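re: that chain from earlier
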Amino acid sequence: MNKREQKKAAIRAELGIESPKEYKPRKKRKPMTEEQKAKARENLAKARAARAPAKISSIHPNVLALPDDHPLSAVKVKSWLKYNQDMLKSMKSQKDSKERKERMQYQIVENYVKNLKIYLKDSVWSDHRFGERMENKMEWTTIAEGDSSWRTKKK
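^ sequence. v structure.
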């Protein structure tokens, strides 16, 4: 028993506290033989082969179906998201800045990050810009025009 443990025991005796229960040390495993290791490797390989491929449920299937060279592919959008999240962390001090332009820049990046997350989850692009630094403009196209007959006044 070293000095520290002796002091602890003296203090416990002085205060009338029982010594803590001593736990039985955990028994160590026996080392595996080479045959057992080979059998374990074989079983693990068999289990890994039988396992189904991982499903990416956090990304919308339409986004996953896009090829990697597509402008809005999941791989590119994830890299943009990572870059902008890092940028947002570095701009944290601008959030409550007295300068209006700094606050606005922070809010723009914050909303862009939110829109990137929405796109990955729902496959709906809700921003007018895209790219790592929001350098490209989105071109909107009309797929089907709505019915505007309700707007015209009947006389």
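The first strand starts at residue 129 and ends at 130.
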